[in-house]
């Protein structure tokens, strides 16, 4: 920088360059004047000093301009390098950002695809559940159709009873659809021993009376439904007692199977008089749950009866087992005696082996005198050893 007339100018400013040129022209003009005037050396000396100082300043201005030009060139090169480095850094950062964005987009697309796959699986599960619900609805409707008909309702109760009996008793302990001596066919006949004897299980389902109770909205309707329920159950109890309790052939009681826990609960909750009438007629009312418990009790009775029937065979097998154990004890004693004899024979073999070893050692040492004085060892026959 250069200060002229109170203002700062750069070395490359046009004003500085013009002023420098004007100074050079002025110096030349002054030299011409001095030469033309032909003044004396004493008067020209101060002027020459001023001219020399001006020349030096002009030279310094030129040198400063050259240095300024070099500095500006260096600054421009540094700025260019900085811009290049900055561009490289920016390109690297842009590449890194692009890579990260690509990875993020790829991860997002992967997660989106996985989520869509899981959503598809859930939709398939929902579709299957919907199909099962529709199938179940059809089954419920078919069950209602079955229960609406008395014959199909009876078959439904018999099938449920058959399933329970098969799970609780062995196959030879019951007969389904057994015919009695009075030509009555029982749904199930349990072959219990005397006493009490075979017992009949008959399936009954007073569905109409129960549905009337559930639909009753007024006290009058409830009373009419209760009357219908009492009449239906009484009729079933009477029919079972007359058809399936035969003296000398069956037990003195029978079971009425209700294939509905709700009907069973309703009967015991609100109609205890009907339950007592069944007890009096020796007809015991059971539900699927209580029927299973009753059949398990019958199974224990059958097991005890069969064990009593097989008591003779069991005693015979015990006698044979005792004989086998006694024979085994005798053979063990014989084997022990043989083991004792074998141990004695091994001990004698060891003694003979020791004596033979001693004789061999004497022969090896040429000790014939001691051999001659030693009495011979007697030989024991195998029969004598036994």
Written account of the structure:
By secondary structure, the chain is an alpha/beta fold. The chain folds into three domains: about 1-30 and about 50-60, no CATH class; about 140-310, no CATH class; about 315-385. About 75% of the residues lie in helices and about 10% in strands. The protein has eleven helices and seven strands. The protein has helices spanning about 15-35, 40-150, 150-170, 205-215, 220-245, 260-270, 270-280, 290-310, 310-365, 370-375, 380-385; strands at about 1-5, 5-10, 175-180, 185-190, 200-205, 255, 285. It has a five-stranded mixed beta sheet. Strands 1-2 form a two-stranded antiparallel ribbon. It is flat, with a radius of gyration of 65 Å. The N and C termini lie far apart (about 140 Å). The model is unreliable at about 140-145 and about 380-385 (pLDDT under 50).
Give the tags.
386 residues; alpha/beta; five-stranded mixed sheet; flat; disordered C terminus
What is the topology?
Layout: E1 2-4, E2 7-9, H1 14-37, H2 41-148, H3 150-168, E3 174-179, E4 185-190, E5 199-203, H4 207-215, H5 219-244, E6 254-257, H6 261-270, H7 272-280, E7 283-286, H8 288-309, H9 311-364, H10 368-373, H11 382-385
Parallel strand pairs: 5-6, 6-7
Antiparallel strand pairs: 1-2, 3-4, 4-5
């Amino acid at each position: 920088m250069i200060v002229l007339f109170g203002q700062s100018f750069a070395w490359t400013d046009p004003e500085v360059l013009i002023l420098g040129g004007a100074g050079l022209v002025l110096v030349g003009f002054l030299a011409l004047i001095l030469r033309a005037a032909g003044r004396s050396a004493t008067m020209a000396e101060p002027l020459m000093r001023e001219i020399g100082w001006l020349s030096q300043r002009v030279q310094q201005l030129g040198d400063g301009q050259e240095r300024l030009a070099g500095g500006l060139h260096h600054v421009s090169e540094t700025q260019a390098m900085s811009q290049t480095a900055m561009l490289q850094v920016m390109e690297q950062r842009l590449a890194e950002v692009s890579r990260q964005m690509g990875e993020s987009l790829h991860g997002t697309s992967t997660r989106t695809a996985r989520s869509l796959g899981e959503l598809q699986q859930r939709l398939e599960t929902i579709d299957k559940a919907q199909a099962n619900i529709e199938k179940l609805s059809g089954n419920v409707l078919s069950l209602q159709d079955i229960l609406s008909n008395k014959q199909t309702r009876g078959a439904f109760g018999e099938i449920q009873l058959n399933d329970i009996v098969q799970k609780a008793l062995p196959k030879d302990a019951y007969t389904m659809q057994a015919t009695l001596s009075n030509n009555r066919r029982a749904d199930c006949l349990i072959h219990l021993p005397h006493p009490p004897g075979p017992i009949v299980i008959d399936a009954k389902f007073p569905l109409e009376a129960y549905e009337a109770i559930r639909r009753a909205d007024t006290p009058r309707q409830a009373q009419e439904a209760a009357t219908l329920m009492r009449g239906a159950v009484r009729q079933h109890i009477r029919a079972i007692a007359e058809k399936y309790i035969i003296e000398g052939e069956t037990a003195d009681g029978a079971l009425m199977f209700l294939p509905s826990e709700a009907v069973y609960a309703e009967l015991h909750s609100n109609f205890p008089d009907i339950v007592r009438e069944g007890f009096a007629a020796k007809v015991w009312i059971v539900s699927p749950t209580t029927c299973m418990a009753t059949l398990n009790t019958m199974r224990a009775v059958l097991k005890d009866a069969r064990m009593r029937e097989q008591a003779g065979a069991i005693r015979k097998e015990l006698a044979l087992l005792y004989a086998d154990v006694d024979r085994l004890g005798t053979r063990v004693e014989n084997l022990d005696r043989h083991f004792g004899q074998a141990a004695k024979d091994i001990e004698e073999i060891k003694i003979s082996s020791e004596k033979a070893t001693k004789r061999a050692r004497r022969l090896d040492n040429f000790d014939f005198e001691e051999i001659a004085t030693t009495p011979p060892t007697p030989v024991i026959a195998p029969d004598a050893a036994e």
